[in-house]
Amino acid sequence: MKKYYKFIGIGLAVLVIGITIFISYKSFNNKDKGKDNINTIDASTYIPDEYSYENIVNKNYVIKVYKGLKSEVINLSIIEDFIKSFNDKKSNEIFLIEYLEKDNIKKVKTLIKLEFNGEEGTITKYDVSDEKKFNEGSKEKFKKIVKSGDNNDASIVILKDELQSPLDGQVILTYEDGTSKEYK
Question: Among the four 27, 55, 113, 184, which has the fewest Cβ within 10 Å?
Fold first, then answer.
């Protein structure tokens, strides 16, 4: 009788483990993972014309496109020129836009405007939740913008204080060597 219960217990344990593995596998490999997945883009996604990739690629925009786990930065020299003009105390304005791309459909993930008036910088984050119209959101002042890291793995960081460490700043762009293109 004890052997019988032992076999039932082992059988149930194997069944529970098997079901758990199956459910985990199905969840992990599900192609339509829902709205919370960074790579999920609805086919009906709309981008206002003024922010479409084709209309901004030759303008004052730094573009980052996420394709699954990979990303590509376009017009990186624009933000490098912005940093130089910031250090030279020359006014400048640029935009940073990030797209998610899946099956040749793009969706705007982030839109940021960086401005420098010769004395201080302002970062404006846009609300892109309404796909028909992007609204200006929060604005913050910053005192410095730096490139942190090396050419293989770098970040662009804004600092609220000139003495603040780049490790404590707000990262606005990351990129890896070999993942950038210039169109401007």
Answer: 27
